[in-house]
Design goal:
By secondary structure, the chain is mainly α. The chain has 14 helices and 3 strands. A 3-stranded antiparallel sheet has the order 1-2-3, with helices on one face. A hairpin with a 2-residue loop joins strand 2 and strand 3. The longest helix has 34 residues. It starts with a helix and ends in a 6-residue tail after the last helix.
Length: 367
């Protein structure tokens, strides 16, 4: 029987905030792909419209069931996502030198996006079942480490360093939240400071170049540094109020690369200036704090940790993408939630928001 309290406790503010950000994203994407005349990429906007509708349907589906069922089904979902990553390596489609997409009839999906939700759910299950007030020891962290590293290794093989790094940050945030025993935490810090520099020797040449260019974009202004330099010019040229909708010259003259994905924030900053950029950043900050409030209000460990993981996913994607556009982070191909073009990304974020709504609207069950 339907419980009317689900409507009473429904988080309309979170839903409204999500729709507002999504509409800003569609408007910015329209500008990014139609500023050129003629525009060969205009079809991308209509594709994103379809994906946005699918994402909204997935968001609704994500809050229709009791989120506690996800506790039970997190392991099978995780296993399916791992199998999809393996399928990508075997049957995936090469695009831009990377093998990240599976072709399913008329659509293509990026399983590395969906695996973020799976990792969040399976870690939330583990941490909620074995929560310790003293904190987790290194031995107790072995299983979540393995659960995190399996998809990371498969994603790095594609290669997709940005998504792999994002999963590390999400898992790390969740682990710090549930608390690590002091000695174990110190040991992790020391070992990480030794291991992280060694990763340099395992990076591909173009990945090393991106890091070097991040440190000094002028070392290759017409090559690897071109993206960052043009992005900074676009953001700076927007000044206070921007040039106006569809009037961004960096985008229209094709100086801004990957304007509909990695550097879509630069398109918005050029057209709407400092004011428009701050408005979008503030909207994302409200969304992040809203997610944290959902976690705090939940009185059940699994729901709390799940909400923290989803909020961490949104925060790190916003932080990294805007950091890339401003030259504060290396270019690693992380999309801006609901703003960048990408069906799998929109679907993943929508499912995450749906689960936040799910946890929020069922908080009365524990009161």
């Amino acid at each position: 029987m339907f419980d009317r309290r689900l409507v009473q406790y429904f988080d309309w503010g979170l839903l409204g905030l999500t729709v507002v950000i999504g509409c800003i994203g569609l408007a910015t994407l329209y500008s990014a792909v139609t500023a050129e005349t003629p525009s060969p990429q205009k079809v991308l906007f209509f594709k994103q419209l379809i994906w946005f509708a699918i994402a909204m349907a997935a968001m609704v589906a994500s809050f229709m069931f009791n989120y506690k069922l996800l506790d039970r089904w997190s392991q099978p979902i995780y296993t399916i996502c791992i199998l999809l990553l393996i399928c990508v390596l075997v049957f995936g489609k090469y695009v831009g030198g990377s093998k990240r997409w599976l072709i399913l009839g008329p659509i293509s999906i990026q399983p590395s996006e969906l695996v973020k939700i799976a990792v969040i759910a399976v870690l939330a299950r583990y941490y909620s079942k074995d929560a310790y007030t003293r904190g987790f020891t290194l031995r107790e962290l072995i299983r979540p480490f393995i659960l995190t590293m399996i998809p990371i290794l498969l994603i790095v093989k594609q290669p997709d360093l940005g998504t792999a790094m994002l999963i590390v940050l999400i898992a790390g945030t969740m682990t710090v939240f549930v608390k690590i025993e002091r000695r174990s935490f110190i040991s992790l810090i020391v070992s990480s400071s030794i291991i992280i520099p060694m990763i340099w020797f395992f990076l591909k040449e173009y990945q090393k170049q991106r890091i070097l260019v991040f440190l000094d974009p002028d070392r290759d202004p017409l090559g690897a540094g071109y993206h960052i330099i043009q992005s900074k010019i676009a953001i700076g040229s927007g000044m206070i109020g921007g040039k106006g909708f569809l009037k961004g010259t960096q985008n229209a003259l094709s100086f801004l690369p990957e304007e509909h994905t990695d550097f879509i924030f630069s398109v918005l900053a050029e057209e709407w200036g400092f004011i428009g950029s701050i408005v979008l950043i503030l909207l994302f900050l409200v969304l992040i704090f809203w997610g944290l409030n959902v976690a705090i209000a939940c009185r059940e460990p699994f729901g709390t940790i799940l909400a923290v993981g989803i909020t961490a996913m949104i925060f790190w994607q916003v932080f990294i993408n805007i950091g890339m556009a401003m030259g504060l982070m290396p270019v690693v191909g992380v999309p801006l939630p609901f703003i960048s073009y990408g069906g799998s990304s929109a679907l993943t974020i929508a499912i995450g928001i749906g689960l936040l709504l799910n946890v929020s609207m069922r908080r009365f069950l524990l009161e």
